[in-house]
């Protein structure tokens, strides 16, 4: 997170435009970075509508503009060969994103609700599913919500994996589910049933398969 200074359009001695921005860089696929961005945005505004549209960035060979709730939040892209050579990234394939930090902080799902501290413990389950590369985090969240019980307290993006056990053209996405009953202690059997319903929805909606290895 840092302040950026961009010259104002036209000639003159006006002060540059100052904005605070959040930068993310990773040595991974652009689709992985996209999943991280969707997870970050959804952790702030679970109802956010996220769209990635093609963009032209001077530092990227392929890029996208990040539109959230009909407003531009930032950009993401694959670092170009020229930039990689300039910074001696010969053995890396970095992707990067830049978000308007102030605008990111304004995201929220309606009015903020204050809840009392929970009286009963939560049960957390991690799911690793194999889906096609073009499946977005937003698609996965929607599939989870189709069968989510009232006891589902939170869904978090954990990570993306490519490698042994994952077919070419697909990816393994790990998500964390947290369940809690405000009126009593959950049993593992009830959570098993919740999890089975969610997996069924993921299979029917995004063609997901559980990764067991």
UniProtKB/TrEMBL annotation:
<dbReference type="GO" id="GO:0000049">
    <property type="term" value="F:tRNA binding"/>
</dbReference>
<keyword id="KW-0479">Metal-binding</keyword>
<keyword id="KW-0030">Aminoacyl-tRNA synthetase</keyword>
<dbReference type="InterPro" id="IPR005121">
    <property type="entry name" value="Fdx_antiC-bd"/>
</dbReference>
<feature type="domain" description="FDX-ACB">
    <location>
        <begin position="118"/>
        <end position="211"/>
    </location>
</feature>
<keyword id="KW-0067">ATP-binding</keyword>
<dbReference type="GO" id="GO:0005524">
    <property type="term" value="F:ATP binding"/>
</dbReference>
<dbReference type="GO" id="GO:0005737">
    <property type="term" value="C:cytoplasm"/>
</dbReference>
<keyword id="KW-0694">RNA-binding</keyword>
<keyword id="KW-0648">Protein biosynthesis</keyword>
<dbReference type="GO" id="GO:0046872">
    <property type="term" value="F:metal ion binding"/>
</dbReference>
<keyword id="KW-0436">Ligase</keyword>
<keyword id="KW-0547">Nucleotide-binding</keyword>
<dbReference type="Pfam" id="PF03147">
    <property type="entry name" value="FDX-ACB"/>
</dbReference>
<dbReference type="GO" id="GO:0006412">
    <property type="term" value="P:translation"/>
</dbReference>
<dbReference type="InterPro" id="IPR036690">
    <property type="entry name" value="Fdx_antiC-bd_sf"/>
</dbReference>
<dbReference type="Pfam" id="PF17759">
    <property type="entry name" value="tRNA_synthFbeta"/>
</dbReference>
<dbReference type="InterPro" id="IPR045864">
    <property type="entry name" value="aa-tRNA-synth_II/BPL/LPL"/>
</dbReference>
<keyword id="KW-0820">tRNA-binding</keyword>
<keyword id="KW-0963">Cytoplasm</keyword>
<keyword id="KW-0460">Magnesium</keyword>
<dbReference type="InterPro" id="IPR041616">
    <property type="entry name" value="PheRS_beta_core"/>
</dbReference>
<dbReference type="GO" id="GO:0004812">
    <property type="term" value="F:aminoacyl-tRNA ligase activity"/>
</dbReference>
<protein>
    <recommendedName>
        <fullName>FDX-ACB domain-containing protein</fullName>
    </recommendedName>
</protein>
């Amino acid at each position: 997170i840092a302040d950026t200074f961009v010259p104002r359009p036209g000639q003159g001695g006006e002060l540059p435009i100052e904005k605070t921005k959040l930068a993310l860089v990773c040595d991974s696929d652009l689709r992985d970075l996209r999943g991280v961005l969707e997870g970050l945005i959804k952790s702030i505004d679970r109802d956010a509508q996220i769209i990635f549209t093609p963009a032209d960035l001077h530092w990227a060979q392929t890029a996208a503009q990040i539109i959230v709730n009909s407003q531009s939040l930032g950009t993401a892209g694959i670092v170009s060969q020229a930039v990689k050579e300039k910074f001696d990234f010969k053995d890396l394939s970095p992707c990067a994103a830049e978000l308007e930090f102030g605008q990111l902080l304004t995201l929220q799902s309606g009015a903020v609700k204050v809840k009392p501290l929970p009286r009963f413990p939560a049960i957390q389950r991690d799911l690793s599913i194999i889906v096609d590369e073009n499946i977005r985090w937003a698609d996965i969240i929607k599939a989870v919500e189709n069968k989510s019980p009232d006891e589902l307290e939170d869904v978090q993006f954990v990570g993306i994996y490519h490698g042994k056990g994952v077919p070419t053209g697909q990816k393994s996405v790990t998500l964390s589910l947290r369940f809690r009953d405000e009126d009593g202690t959950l049993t593992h059997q009830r959570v098993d049933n919740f999890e089975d319903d969610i997996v069924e929805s993921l299979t029917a909606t995004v063609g997901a398969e559980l990764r067991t290895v």
